[in-house]
Design a protein that fits this description.
Order of helices and strands: EHEEEHEHHHHHEHEEHEEHE
Number of domains: 2
Shape: globular
Number of strands: 11
Helix content: 25-40%
Strand order of the largest sheet: 9-10-8-7-6-11
Strand content: 15-25%
Largest sheet: 6 strands, mixed
Radius of gyration: 19 Å
Number of helices: 10
């Protein structure tokens, strides 16, 4: 059995663990959205938590953008299980695989549901950081998937997981300290939309903490742009491949906001969910694209733009 799953989040890794529980000899490809174009001609038995590839026999997913595209193209089949209302792809996959009575599988899916709907626990936080660190390292992602399959939600008792968390924690704390310093500098601004444009020096493993810290302080919309080009000293796989002259953009939205992150991202070629979405911006003509973003976001409030070049200390 050959399967493709999303490489960079808990939903994708839990999905991989469910597949290993059912089919231990499966070949699993851990892919990002960007990777899909290079795997479109692979004859997958299952594509999970990712858009359907052209030769996939079945697609298990919960992204509305994928659902709408398949309907438009007439490619949605009876073999596909796609429900935009589902909290995670894993919640659909567990039924597809007939693992509903497996307690280990159920608890893993409960964790994936919390993680993919914006919730967090200490375990989820640790696992997410480790997955992010190795999101471009298929061999290590398979190791994590096997740990989940074998130990379930007690994965944090695994010695390798404990060692990795000890290694990453100081860098995460360094990133948190940087963001808290920034929040303090911006605390008196009457603004509800923040754009943080990171040029250099920020620990990549802590990057997805930035929007949540801003949202928890009352900001409505947080847009994080990653333009860093240097090697990552703690998670080399995150900088092992060139960005191909592109910046990665992450959008997170307060639960009280009427702003639709997915529709905003789609205007720039991206996609995602209502409260969490992403896209890539070409660095050729970047200033123009950034200007368009600011104009769009200004319809929802006052926009604050911050450029961080931490290789030269914090500059605002």
């Amino acid at each position: 059995m050959r399967v493709a799953v999303h490489a960079s989040d808990i939903d994708g890794l839990v999905s991989a663990a469910l597949i290993l529980l059912k089919y231990p000899n499966s070949k699993i490809d851990f892919l990002t959205l960007r990777d899909l174009q290079n795997y479109d001609d692979v004859e997958y038995d299952l594509v999970v938590d990712l858009p359907k590839t052209s030769k996939a026999k079945a697609n298990i997913d919960h992204h509305i953008s994928n659902y709408e595209k398949l309907l438009k193209e007439g490619r949605l089949t009876k073999n596909d299980v796609i429900d935009p209302k589902a909290p995670s792809a894993a919640s659909l996959l567990i039924r597809y695989l007939g693992l509903e009575n497996n307690e280990k599988a159920r608890k893993l899916v409960e964790m994936a549901n919390i993680a993919d709907t914006g919730g967090v626990t200490k375990k989820i936080y640790k696992l997410d950081k480790i997955i992010k660190c190795y999101s471009k390292d298929p061999a290590t992602l398979m190791k994590i998937a096997w740990i989940l399959a074998e130990k379930g939600v007690k994965f944090d008792k695994d010695e390798w997981i404990k060692k990795e968390w000890k290694r990453l924690k100081p860098w995460i704390e360094k990133g948190l300290k940087m963001v808290k310093k920034l929040l303090k500098k911006l605390s008196k601004l009457d603004s509800n939309v923040i754009i943080v444009d990171i040029v250099s020096g920020f620990p990549r493993v802590a990057m997805n903490d930035i929007p949540w810290l801003f949202l928890n302080k009352g900001w409505e919309i947080a847009v994080i742009i990653n333009r860093m080009r240097e090697e990552d000293p703690i998670c080399p796989s995150l900088s092992s491949a060139p960005n191909n002259n592109q910046a990665r953009v992450s959008i997170r939205v307060s639960k009280h906001s009427r702003f639709d992150a997915r529709k905003f991202a789609e205007k720039f070629g991206g996609g995602g969910h209502l409260k969490a979405a992403g896209m890539r911006l070409n660095l050729n003509g970047y200033e123009e694209l950034l200007g368009r973003m600011i104009m769009e976001l200004s319809e929802y409030g006052s926009v604050t733009y911050v450029r961080l070049d931490l290789s030269k200390n914090l500059k605002l």
